[in-house]
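question for whoever is on the cluster today: can someone run the full assembly for these? two chains, 866 residues total. i dont have access anymore since they changed the login thing
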Amino acid sequence: MKSGTLHPITLLEHEVYKILTGMGFEITSAQELEDEWHNFDALRVEKDHPARDMQDTFYLKNLPGMVMRTHTSNTQIRRMKQLKELGVEPPFAFCTIGKVYRNESTDATHETQFHQVEGMVIGEGINVAHLKGVLTRFFQELYGDSAKIKLRPSFFPFVEPGFEVAVWTGKKWLELLGAGMVHPEVIENGGFDSTKYTGFAFGMGLDRLAVIKYGVPDVRVFYAGDERVNQF
Amino acid sequence: MKYSKILLEKIYGKTLPSNEQLDELITEHLCEVESIEAVGNDSVIDLEITPNRYGDLLSHEGLLKELCAFQKQSYDSVYNKELNLPEVKREKGNAIIEGSSRIIFVHVSGLKQIKTPEWMKNILSACGIQSKSIFVDITNMVMLITGQPVHVYDGSKCTGSFIVTPAHDGEIFTMMGGKNYNLTVNDLVIRDGTKENPNIILGDKSGVLSLAGIKGGENAIVDENTTSAFFELGVFDEKYIRKTSRRLNLATDASKRFSVHRKSSLLDHALKVLLILLKEEADVAVITIEDTKKGEVETSAQVVVSQQEIQRLLGANIDSAEIESILKSLGFQVVVEGELYKVVPPLDRVDIVYPVDVIEEVGRMYGYNNIQEELPRLNFTPHIDQRTLVVTQLRQILSEVGFNEIRNHSLVAQGSLEVASPVSKEKSFLRDTLVTSFKNSVEQSRLNKDFLEASNICLYEIGTIFTKEATEELHVVLFDGTKKKPLIEAFNEQIKDHHLKKVLELISDEDGYTVYKVNYTKADPEGDYAFIGDSTGDTKFTQWGTTPYVSRDVSCFIPSDNTPQEVLGWCMNEQLNYLIKKPYLADTFTKDDKTSVLIRFVFQDASTTLTDAVVNEEIEKIYTMLRSKGCEMR
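^ ran it for u. tokens below:
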């Protein structure tokens, strides 16, 4: 019997999971319909603050306080709290790949839903050098041994310092992800002692990785339910 | 924000590095450089300033401080020097009722009709601001230089008795340009105090002169006849500004700068720059200033951080002298006590609150790219959560038995939960079933059978749906388009003794669509799984057009020395126009030592529907080629 075909997002998802689990990350999941506290407040994205404007949000009629998650970073808080309840202390490293939503007009490079890869590592003495080490290794697995990264200062309320990360894919530099050292308040909101533990987190668009890898000219084909995208 | 290199150099009094060097320095130590482009004699530096730095970096002086620190040079501004100021009379300030910690009004009269000088026009234009009149242009220059928004009112259209106060509910504000806004008590306004009358709510009579910190009104607008003016420099409570700006959807240069806290002492410097420009560029001689300054000296809160904390978080052994030097280069007051740095940031660095904020300063100035990579050594046992485990196992089995995967959008035209402000009617609900979109996918695949090289349509989708109780459920839907449903049968056989049997709850099985709810929490968490598929190939995506396909089947007996694959290879090597995909073997059979192949060609022109004549011409090339190779056409 001939095997069925897989969606390109699935292929990339599987590849990323293979790399991250190979590096010791556990896989976790969190909900897409999320409360504002887990999506924003616990991650220090204050109400009315310009930082909240950075992400156009889908709110829901008759469901005050709920949003379609704008990023997979809600998983940071959800998983830390779960681990705390289970009595697990750091170190831990987890990742997730999930659907996120942005209320913005769509075009060939923007879609109202897409997938993000999220990773978080918490432990004693986790630092920027470790973040660089893990991301470099990740991209070398993805793009080959010549892959390397460079960091540019940036700002996300849930990390400090925060970075935009550019990746040398072997052919060119591409800005592929945001990352940073987890803000002490976020570690506390997850239930852990920020004077004892530090950590890093990163997040990137999986659809973008797929667009780059396969040369897809319009991201909207991914969620049109069209079997013709399964070309790989 | 757009910065003019000429203005930066004018403030600095020295030449800055080349554009290439600036690009490199800013990217390494500060933020994203959108572009640096030459405009006339100037270069426009366009930077993506993140909200945490709105307090200092939305100004040329702010950027200049950074540029000096990157080059280990001391910062200076021409506006810090003692310059020739006009004669100033100081008076007691106007009333602040709420929402401002300080406001200054600068009254100038006997104004001459002076045109904005070219250099100023050019700088404003480089920064994306249109030149209007000398007085308005000067307010914009103060903002570009210092970051302090300034507003100017025509002195003949207001009495000069100003108050800062919340608006009345229902009050109408007419903005510059004539657009009306309905105000509430949550909006802060600057009002002509002599006209304060809560019973009058019409814009022009209520005395509202401006929406504080956001935009000026139509009431006291300056024009070419203005001979007396009031310049307003204030600081406003960011909570008011953010709420009003968001509610009225009114984002302005001023509202952006007031969306973070501004310290009132910063007004002293902005006032000085304003006075210099009024004297030098508008020939203003005498000025009266009303200032609500209370006299206390403001400082930033001290942040204490240790060398160990800095080294621990950055993973770099930065020595004590370098840390101190970096912080001082950014204008921080630093007291070193043993391992501790007691740091007081400059007044406009409102982003520096926690020790990690100071560590970031050290890190970005030291250079993140100078930190050596290292893999952490952590001792823990990784595992996979039940949801991902079950999804992965389902995909594995469904793929093995021959189902193809599709993915649809979660936002649809009908559902139980409605989205507020949707992007379109088609995407205004969260899906509460996978089936509706999935049926369309099946239909679509039927139409695209030839493109898909499929004789039967066999699809599945795994995805989240959203119930009216606002919960999420994981569902899977299957469709087996073959007559005897062998795929469904094979799937059932595979899960018969699998833990997925207890995980899958049949919801419906109608018209060939089988839907399960996936109760993944019932899954055996230790089950085996594999991330199937291979994404290591170099195949690139083929985008299909929207015009109809034309398929042509070519059938022939092939020479006995050749295999069907070889014959297919000949067809692939033939240069044909309009082929949307590689030809493929749709069928082969052997009878009486003769092998017949059926090769399918799919044509499409993205811009127009192909005619038979055009396609026949292409396919004729194949016939000719196959005959020449000894094939017997059927």
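summary bc i know u wont read the tokens: Chain B has 20 helices and 30 strands. Residues 198-204 of chain B have pLDDT under 50 and may be disordered.
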